[in-house]
């Protein structure tokens, strides 16, 4: 089959307008640009790991769930003091208002530029699901993110042991019953400070691994009759590490 270049460009831009991801950060008061999808990786310098498509991930068992596809390491690392604020900015306005926002970190062990985040390495530093109201018409954290200029601000736990870490921002769009859309992006950090805090093993999870399409939280139909009287939603995965 033959596709004209114009048709492909039109299809790409239609896709891009409905999806996306984290495009920049404010880390401890310094602005960092994200990787630019659809542009060649060659010549791009960013603290963010490479992601090549605005499309969501719809199979939570894929390796790309960790840091999106291709997930190749960034060339830069942001230095940030434990206890500082990190704000992620999505393409604006972020188009999805139903679903959670989660922020994870993983200790790179050594250099994040050679680290592959496999196994139980991820811990949460922040999460929010259904904030108020019911599953259908209530306020979800992704709605709050959109209302906040398509941004989400979290704090690096002040007692976190210094070292090199990935920070992974994730929002999940829940508007299609049984088929959530995952949007994860990772950035590379060096955390400074004098803390000694290390998350307990019970707070660590593997990504992929922590999510499943058969999890009732993930398969819920937010437009069902039952959803109109459901005012709680269990966020998947371990509890948040607060330091
Ligand atoms: C939303 O915006 C308010 C007001 O600027 C801010 O205090 C709050 O931290 C923001 N929430 C998140 C999760 O970023
Ligand atoms: Cu989308």
TrEMBL record:
The UniProt entry's GO biological process terms, in alphabetical order, are: cellulose catabolic process
Checking CDD domains in the record gives: LPMO_AA9
Q: Which domain of life is it from?
A: Eukaryota
**GO CC entries:** extracellular region
Q: Does the keyword Metal-binding apply?
A: no
- Where does the signal peptide begin and end? 1-18
**Where found?**
Secreted
Cofactor(s) essential for the protein: Cu(2+)
Concerning InterPro entries, the annotation shows:
AA9, AA9_LPMO
Q: What does this protein do?
A: Lytic polysaccharide monooxygenase (LMPO) that depolymerizes crystalline and amorphous polysaccharides via the oxidation of scissile alpha- or beta-(1-4)-glycosidic bonds, yielding C1 and/or C4 oxidation products. Catalysis by LPMOs requires the reduction of the active-site copper from Cu(II) to Cu(I) by a reducing agent and H(2)O(2) or O(2) as a cosubstrate.
**Record remark: domains:** Has a modular structure: an endo-beta-1,4-glucanase catalytic module at the N-terminus, a linker rich in serines and threonines, and a C-terminal carbohydrate-binding module (CBM).
Q: What is this protein called?
A: AA9 family lytic polysaccharide monooxygenase
In its UniProt entry, the species of origin is given as: Lachnellula suecica
């Amino acid at each position: 089959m033959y596709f004209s270049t114009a048709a492909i460009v039109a299809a790409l831009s239609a896709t891009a307008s409905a999806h996306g991801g984290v495009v920049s950060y404010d880390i401890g008061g310094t602005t960092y640009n994200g990787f630019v999808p659809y542009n060649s990786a060659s010549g791009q310098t960013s603290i963010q790991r490479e992601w090549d498509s605005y499309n969501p991930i719809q199979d939570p068992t894929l390796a790309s769930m960790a840091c999106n596809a291709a997930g190749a390491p960034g060339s830069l690392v942001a230095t940030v003091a434990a206890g500082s604020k990190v704000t992620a900015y999505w393409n604006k306005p972020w188009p999805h208002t139903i679903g959670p926002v989660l922020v994870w970190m993983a200790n790179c062990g050594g250099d994040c530029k050679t680290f592959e985040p496999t196994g139980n390495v991820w811990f949460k530093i922040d999460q929010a699901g259904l904030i108020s109201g019911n599953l259908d018409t209530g306020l979800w954290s992704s709605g709050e993110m959109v209302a906040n200029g398509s941004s989400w601000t979290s704090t690096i736990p002040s007692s976190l042991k210094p070292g090199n870490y990935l920070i992974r921002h994730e929002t999940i769009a829940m508007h299609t019953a049984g088929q959530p859309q995952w949007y994860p992006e990772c950035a590379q950090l060096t955390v400074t400070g004098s803390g000694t805090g290390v998350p307990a093993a019970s707070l660590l999870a593997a990504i992929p691994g922590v999510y499943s399409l058969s999890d009732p939280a993930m398969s819920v139909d937010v437009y069902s009759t039952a959803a109109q009287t459901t005012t709680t939603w269990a966020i998947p995965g371990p509890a948040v590490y607060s330091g």
